[in-house]
Specification:
Blueprint: E1 5-11, H1 15-35, E2 38-45, H2 49-53, E3 62-63, H3 66-70, E4 75-80, H4 88-97, E5 101-104, H5 107-123, E6 128-129, H6 141-147, E7 153-159, H7 162-174, H8 178-187, H9 196-199, H10 202-216, E8 226-227, H11 235-243, E9 246-257, E10 260-271, E11 283-290, E12 294-301, H12 305-324, E13 348-358, H13 363-373, E14 378-385, E15 391-398, E16 401-402, H14 403-414, E17 419-428
Parallel strand pairs: 1-2, 1-4, 2-3, 4-5, 5-6, 8-10, 10-17
Antiparallel strand pairs: 7-9, 7-11, 9-10, 11-12, 13-15, 13-16, 13-17, 14-15
Helix pairs in contact: 1-12, 4-5, 5-10, 7-8, 13-14
The protein binds NADP nicotinamide-adenine-dinucleotide phosphate and L-homoserine (HSE).
Length: 431
């Protein structure tokens, strides 16, 4: 096949769009040798032409009219890096229906409308690839769909949000409180002006939905994922966790159990010896378990201009190879099963519980009697005196128990006068 130019268009020229433009420029010299074609960015869709002009060599490629791209038959690949649901959804669908291949990093969209987009790609026999949508520069979608396809995956979990990992690292290593660590993350440019999606776990929840769908070959959408953020974590929780041999991380967990899929994001204690406990700062890591490969871990930069662009360009190059070999749409939607997603109350975990109790004889016996009624067994306990009179702080880690039973036990404990306050409840990762 001749060494033809393949024209592409970028939708959006923000952090990732600019990164993709730079990485493609940087690859220009060896691209033909590497993939047999030259990828040319023929047009870039932006809202503000003036603002974008200084970011490109030839401002004539900028447009604020989507139709300039959609109606250009020479553009074979559309790279959506605008983010958000609309108009990204309608632009991607229109591009696919026009027979164009699409690359996207848009987890917000894919976690909700992934099935629709993949179905449109399949119907039009084109590629829709989204490696950058989960954990930025870390390869995980393609490894799951291709290199690990010979497995039944039972678990995919990890640290998939860099901002919250940075905040928790500062709280752990420097004893900072949440608000101070968030302020530092904002000052250093890790956290966005509105950090809600990161600190409330929504960003990680979208990634868990996508990871679970790909790993278990069964559709999991954003609404299926139970989500809790890190805003209630205190430096004190972290200190107690460490005393008990654990660190606290915001984990995204997806498990394929006999009775269904579990999918959740929450701050969890993880044994300090687990490889994920030493993934610090803004780094991400994804840990998978398959019946053939056993454990495998993927580590790296989960966000940022060039790391995310690295994943996007990998997808673009894959599509170019497919076009050249006349084998596009080779790997589309891999969700061929319909596994139910379990309710959170039916999941099983160990729990960390910090509470203030009356400091008198018999209080612990009262607490364990309530626990026993609901099958909650204590695995570790610490008791410390507090400054308040007649009050002690008790920290418990339970054995594995059904969440619904644990919650019922907590409700009953809250009615007891001897339990003055339950300050924290966290899950403990224990597989
Ligand atoms: P960003 O910096 O906010 O850039 C978005 C770009 O899209 C801006 O240039 C914006 O133009 C443009 N845009 C938005 N709506 C548009 C519209 N209707 N028409 C034309 N242009 C439009 O966002 P980003 O950080 O690059 O993220 C892009 C995507 O990558 C998102 O889906 C995000 O979730 C995903 N992602 C990002 C990262 C990361 O590290 N940043 C990592 C993984 C995945 P204006 O500047 O004029 O508004
Ligand atoms: N805001 C995300 C993070 C990066 O902090 O990891 C984009 O997915």
């Amino acid at each position: 096949m001749e060494n033809k130019v393949i024209n592409a268009a970028l939708l959006g020229l923000g952090t990732v769009g600019t990164g993709v433009y730079k990485v493609l420029k940087n690859q220009e010299e060896e691209m033909s040798a590497k993939i047999g074609s030259q990828v040319k960015i023929k047009k870039i869709l932006v809202r503000n032409l003036e603002k974008a002009a200084s970011k490109v060599e030839d401002p004539a490629i900028l447009t604020n009219q989507w139709e300039d791209i959609l109606n250009d038959p020479d553009i074979e690949i559309v790279i959506e890096l605008m983010g958000g649901i609309n108009p990204a959804r309608s632009y991607i669908l229109a591009a696919l229906n026009a027979g164009k291949h699409v690359v996207s990093a848009n987890k917000d969209l894919i976690a909700v409308y992934g099935q629709e987009l993949l179905a449109a790609a399949e119907a039009n026999h084109v590629d829709f690839l989204f490696e950058a949508a989960v954990a930025g520069g870390i390869p995980i979608i393609r490894p799951l769909k291709q290199c690990l396809a010979g497995n039944h995956m039972s678990e995919v979990m990890g640290i998939v949000n860099g901002t919250t990992n940075f905040i928790l690292t500062k709280m752990t290593q420097e004893g900072m409180e949440f608000a101070d660590a968030l302020a530092l993350a904002t000052e250093l440019g890790y956290a966005e002006a509105d950090p809600t999606a990161d600190i409330e776990g929504l960003d990680a929840g979208r990634k868990v939905a996508i990871l679970a769908s790909v790993a278990f070959n069964s559709r999991v959408v954003f609404d299926d994922v139970h989500i809790e953020g890190i805003t209630k974590i205190s430096a004190k929780d972290i200190r107690y966790a460490r005393e008990m041999g654990c660190d606290i991380k915001l984990l995204g967990v997806a498990r394929n159990e006999e009775d269904g899929i579990e999918a959740y994001v929450c701050p969890m204690l993880i044994p300090s010896g687990h490889p994920l406990a030493s993934v610090n700062d803004s780094y991400n890591a994804v840990f998978v378990h398959g019946d053939a490969v056993e454990d495998a871990m993927f580590f790296g930069r989960g966000a940022g201009e060039l790391p995310t662009a690295s994943a996007v360009v990998g997808d673009i190059f894959d599509i170019v190879r497919n076009i050249r070999s006349n084998c596009t749409a080779r790997i589309g939607c891999t969700c061929y099963k319909e596994i139910p997603v379990k309710k959170m109350e039916d999941t099983h975990n160990c729990y960390f519980l910090r509470m203030q109790v009356e400091d008198r004889c018999g209080v612990l016996a009262e607490m364990t009697a309530v626990f026993a009624k609901y099958h909650v067994s204590v695995a570790q306990i610490i008791q410390k005196e507090t400054k308040a009179q007649d009050c002690a702080e008790v920290v418990v880690i339970t054995a594995r128990v059904r969440e619904g039973d644990f919650r019922t036990a907590i409700k009953e404990l809250e009615t007891r006068d001897s339990i003055r306050k339950i300050s924290s409840i966290l899950r403990v990762y224990n597989k």
